[in-house]
Every structure is written in C-alpha cells, then in structure tokens.
Amino acid sequence: MRLHRDWFLGRKHRLVVIAAILGGLSVAMLASGCDDSSERKTTAALASSAVTAPNTITVIGKATVTSAPDEAVIRLTVESDGADPAAAMNVNSTSVAEVMERLKAEGIESTAIETANVSVFPNRQYNPQTGEENLIGYRAQNTITVTLKDAAVIGKVLAAAVEAGVNNFSGPVWGLRDDGAAVAEALAQAVADARTKAEALATAQEVKVGGVIMMNEGSVEMPSAQVYYESYDLGAGASKVMPAPISPATLDVTASVTVTYGLDR
Q: How confident is the model at residue 127 (pLDDT cuts 50, 70, 90)?
C-alpha cells in the first residue's frame, strides 16, 4: 500500500507540474495573441521576463523626423493601337524610341530610364444591344520609369514626354536615395522619448531610473509621398504642352524602440 500511495503522490505531483507549465504557456499565448502589434508583443515578452528581473521598467519610445525628398520617380506609358499584334507593337516601339530620345535630349541619363512593363492585348468593344464583345484590333503598351534628382525639371520632363508621344503618365513618387541620416536621427529621438517616459513613470512612484538593461529596435517606417498627374490621348506632337507646376512633398521617417531600464530605490 505504501508503494501504491507513493506512486499516486508522485503522479499527482507530476500532474500539478504539467498543469502549471500548461497554464504558463496559455498565459504567454494569450499575452502574445491579444494584439498583432509587434511593439506590444515585444513589450509583453519583456514584461514577462521582468518577473525574474525586479526593479526594472520597460517603455516604448517613438519619434518622427521630417525630411525633404531627394529623388522623384515618374511613370510614362505609350499606348498604340493596330489591326493586329505586330502592327500595334511596331507603332508602339517607334513611339517609345522617340520618347526615350526626347528624354535624353532633355538631359536625362540612360541609367535613369528603365522599362517597367511591355504588353500587347486584344482591344474589344462591348455591344450593349447584343451583349457581345467584338474584336476591333489590338493595343500595345510600353511603360518606362524615370528617376529624377532635381524636382525643378519634373514638369518640363513630363511636358516633353507628352509632346514626344506619351499618352498616359503618373507621378511623381517622392523618395530618399539615402535614408541613413534620417533613420539614425529618428532612432536617437525615439531613445530620448523612451527615457522621458521612463522618468515620468519612475517619478510618479518616487524612484529613479537607472541604466539600460535591454534595448530593442522596433519598426522604422518611411512611406513614400505620391502625387498623380495623368494625361490621355494627347497624341505625339499634337501641340505644345505647358509644364505642370510641381511642388515637392515631405517624407516622415518614424522609428520606435523598446527599452528596459533598471530602477534605483
């Protein structure tokens, strides 16, 4: 009977341990699954580890730095129709070649011009009376992207492209060629923000913030700024096109960090 009792107590002890482990896993899973935000997941993980590291405080610091763009990308498309695919493609290729020569004449380097898409597809017309679609020919498209470093020439380049044969364009999309300085500044300000938050919380509890125990970089976001100007069916050389007024946008670089500090009581 003693052996049976010892075995039962041992089995009961094992069940308690297993239940405690599963309970801990459930709490951890609920903590990580309650919010899809990576920052909150990081905070939850650090807060969990703080159980074994008392006298600490974990905060998230954020900062946004505004920068002026140093490049712009525009998309230029030439659409051409033909009775068959070959005819449409031949007309389109000739027009695109003229557009590219015009761009180079405007001072655009070949390395700044890139083919983005070339396509040929049936051009069908819907008849609302019969409900049928009739093939009326084929359409060829060729889209090129142009990367410009000088915002002052964008309007002039767009006007020249339309005069040369572009009948569909969009842009500019503003961006940063080198975002290193802006990202570094945003991270530095995010760290300062984290310290400010930690000190505010510590002061409320009449303790002092000590040194950094752990620091993790969070997200760094730099969305592009986009402005669209579009023109259709103008025709090559149909008229003189006035350059569109272009005003550069600003770009916001946002960074976040998660910092754990020690507390001095």
A: confident
Half-sphere exposure of 14 (CA within 13 A, CB side): 6
Backbone angles phi, psi at 184, to 5 degrees: -60, -40
The secondary element (H helix, E strand) that includes residue 80 is: strand 71-82
From CA 172, how far away is CA 74, in angstroms rounded?
A: 5
| Rounded Cα–Cα distance for residues 165 and 150 (Å) | 23
User: What is the C-alpha to C-alpha distance for residues 56 and 48, in angstroms, rounded to an integer?
Assistant: 12
Mean pLDDT value across residues 151-157? 91
pLDDT at 226: 60
At the topology level, CATH places domain 72-171+232-244 in Alpha-Beta Plaits (3.30.70)
pLDDT surpasses 50 at 14: no
d(CA 65, CA 72): 19
Burial of 40 (0-12, 13-18, 19+ CB in 10 A): middle
Q: What's the pTM?
A: 0.66
- Residues 72, 154 contacting (CB under 8 angstroms): yes
Token reading at 92: 């389109």
Residue 118 CA to residue 89 CA, distance in Å, equals: 10
Task: Say what the pLDDT of residue 45 is.
Answer: 57
**What is the rounded CA–CA span in Å between residue 194 and residue 58?**
9
Sheet with 56-67: strands ordered across? 56-67, 251-264, 208-221
Confidence at residue 258, expressed as pLDDT on a 0 to 100 scale: 97
Q: Closest Cα to residue 195, out of 58, 25, 27?
A: 58
